[in-house]
Amino acid sequence: MSLALDQAAKQVGDRDLSHDLEKLRDLARDLESIRAETFSKYQRLLDTLRREKWKPRDSKDRLVIFTERRETLAFLREHLPDDLKLKEEQVRELHGGLSDMDQQAIVEEFGNTRSKVRLLLATDVASEGLNLHYLCHRLVHFDIPWSLMVFQQRNGRIDRYGQDQAPQITYLLTRSEVEKIQGDHRILEILINKRARLR
């Protein structure tokens, strides 16, 4: 990331932006230093799954985790198998970089009782029109979307006709220690106000 900033600085060549570029470099260093052990939201996810007694050995207890970004999905893919004691073949990713055929194959594998897949990490490409409820009643919103419709669409992947268990849907909210930065609470406030105006 810092290489990209250096290239941007050369292209711009404007001294007025040097302060901004330095701040972006600081941010890039901070982001690159994030580790699973110190990433509080990730640790909260692990605590939540343990507290809710998710049983990945049970072929009928599968889990979907939605993220907004593929970078977040990649981070979860890198760390969750070890932290949850899952084998590589027990985790699948579903994102827009896959062909329609590959996406459909993953969905079918996730819903097959003989499949080893227990955890599906998905971006919003999986939020519409997919049936993920056959062996799955657990869903986690790791990232909060900016749209009420996306919330409903995501939830609808497991909360649909034919679901034989009560859906367990978890929202992980980021709360900032800085008062001016309200994080996910501000997003939810905007969405609630928007919905109220639509009524």
List keywords for this structure.
single chain; 199 residues; alpha/beta; Rossmann fold; 2 domains; 7 helices; 12% strand; globular
Structural description of this entry:
- The protein has helices at residues 2-12, 18-32, 40-51, 70-83, 100-110, 148-155, 184-198, and strands at 62-66, 91-94, 119-122, 136-141, 168-171.
- It is of the alpha/beta class and 199 residues long.
- It has two domains: 2-32, no CATH class; 40-171, 3-Layer(aba) Sandwich (Rossmann fold).
- Strands 2-3-1-4-5 form a five-stranded parallel β-sheet, with helices on both faces.
- The chain is globular, with a radius of gyration of 19 Å.
- The chain starts with a helix and ends with a helix.
Residues in β-strands, percent:
5-15%
Which architecture of the largest domain per CATH? 3-Layer(aba) Sandwich
Low-confidence stretches: none
SSE order: HHHEHEHEEHEH
Mean pLDDT: 84
- Helicity, as a percent range: 40-55%
Determine the CATH topology of the largest domain.
Rossmann fold
Terminal-residue CA separation: 44 Å
The coarse overall form would be globular
The CATH class designation of the largest domain is Alpha Beta
The H-level CATH homologous superfamily of the largest domain, spelled out, is P-loop containing nucleotide triphosphate hydrolases
Please state the CA-atom Rg, rounded to the nearest Å: 19 Å
Spatial strand arrangement across the major sheet: 2-3-1-4-5
Number of strands: 5
List the total number of helices. Answer: 7
